[in-house]
Every structure is written in C-alpha cells, then in structure tokens.
C-alpha cells in the first residue's frame, strides 16, 4: 500500500501521522508546518509549502528521510498516482513547441550537451518530471505532469532558457507475492551417494553390541535458487519470500541474494546388535534430488496488478538412510556361505 509517515522531529522522533491519500491542508489535521522527517512506502509523494497544493513542491520517493530540506514548512501532501514506469518528455527550443526539440526518457544533465539553458516549452508524454534551474539538481525547480503542454516558460514559469537538469520521479517498488506451482514441478535428476560404510564381525557364539554405536550423525545439504525470467520487469534490490515448506522460507533479493545453502545435522539409527557368528555390513546413503518448480509472481503497484513467472530450483540432499546386510560366518573348516539378505534401516530424515 502507498503511504507516507511524517514526524514532527528529525530522525523519526516526536509525534507522527500516517497518510494513504491526499491531504490538501495539514493544518486541519493539526499537523501543519511541523514535519521534520518522514518515511515513504510505494509511490512518491509531493509535499507543498502552502495548503491546497500551492507553493513550492518537494518530491519524496520511496525511502526514509531522517531530515528534510525544508523542515516545519509543509502544509499539504499529494500522492503521485500516475504510471511512472516509462517516462518521456519532449523539450523545445522556442515557445509554442517550435524550433529544435529533444526527447528525454531518463535523468539528464543538460549542461553536458547542446540543450543547456535553451528550453522554452515542453510536452510531457509520460511520467512526472522535476525540472531544475541548475545542473546537479540545483537551484529553483518545478514539477511537470503527464499530458502537460507548457507553451511558454517565460510567462508561466519565469524559467525561459534556464533549464539545466531534469529527472523523472521513480516508481515505488511493487509488492510481490510468490506462489510455487507444485503440480508442475519437474524432477530432473535423482541419485544415491555413499556417505559412510561400516562393517562389524561377531565371531563368537553370543550376540554382541555394534562397536560403532547404534546412532550416528551426518550432515545434510539443501541448495536452492530462484531464476527470474528474461522479460522480468523487477528491479535489482527488490525482495520477497518463498514459502517452500513450513521450516523453509527462502528470501529472494534480486541481484543480491538469489540462492542459498542450508546445512543441518541428522541422526541415523543403526543396528544395535550383531547376531552370533555373523558379519554385518552397513551402507549409509544420501539421496540427492534435483528439481525445478515454476513460480507465479503477483506484482501489485499503484493499485495495478500484473503477473510474471519465475523458477525455483533445488538440489536436496536431506534424505539419509542406512542399508544393512548380514552374512553368516562359515563354520570352522567350511567355505563362506551366501549373503543372508539385505534390510533397510530408516534414517532420521
């Protein structure tokens, strides 16, 4: 949800208020001219120095602001509802959209090119733009809204031939919910890996305890990753969680943390006794399974909902079991007999 939380003191201290819609006059809510810090979630907000969205505008994009440039001066707040995903503005050298023109789609310092201090009119195709008097976002500034056709900077802005820098407002990060489509999972590989082998021989006529003990601990590994589609619109740094199972919630952060490895210890039960005149052989195996699962991502941004697909992949080596066989020892003066059979002792996982 889009919201702004404002505080009466710097560093988010003192009285606070939270808003989710436009506020034409903060004085009516007993919070006028007292904002010193704020936090924004979602779309940008514009703070004005006069009620009813008049006076000097100050834009605040998603993030935390422990201090603001004009503390104790804001009288109105406006949420930017517009689509900010594909901004474009056309600048013209002369009034009434005449002369040479320049199409801009990203933040631009005009001082580095041939259009510095030459703009006299503009048309905003998409997005909300901040126009600055000086390079590096300096000096006096104003807002330009989608669909705006400003025919002459001089009478309307007193700004003719003084534009040196401009940038579009950035949209807030979308809220992401992820659903694993287990019914479409693919098992790509399965194999058993020998992790331990134990042999015990009882040459006596009485049952004996296994010298290795009846329990052993082994390590398990779960490697997992998330892959975004090549057409993904999500930006680096966005994070969300995948609830793979109750004990495994995988946090994905695009461009920074898209894979993880979990290691745990499990206890495996072994046969406790060796029968008389018997050779006991134990093989401890770890089953490794490689699988992939499609993931449906639902993105909510500025009240618009869209979806895209990703993929969850894992190599799981968390299933460990012990398999044993017992072979009678040959009587004195005879040849060894055949194996008596194979049994499986379930592991701790």
From TrEMBL:
The keyword Repeat applies. One of its GO terms (biological process) is visual perception. Residues 328-349 are annotated as: Disordered. Keywords: Repeat. GO terms for molecular function: structural constituent of eye lens. InterPro entries: Beta/Gamma-Crystallin (IPR050252), Beta/gamma_crystallin (IPR001064), G_crystallin-like (IPR011024). SMART domains: XTALbg (SM00247). The keyword Coiled coil does not apply. Residues 2-42, 43-81, 87-126 form the Beta/gamma crystallin 'Greek key' domain. PROSITE patterns: CRYSTALLIN_BETA_GAMMA. Belongs to the beta/gamma-crystallin family. This is Epidermal differentiation-specific protein-like.
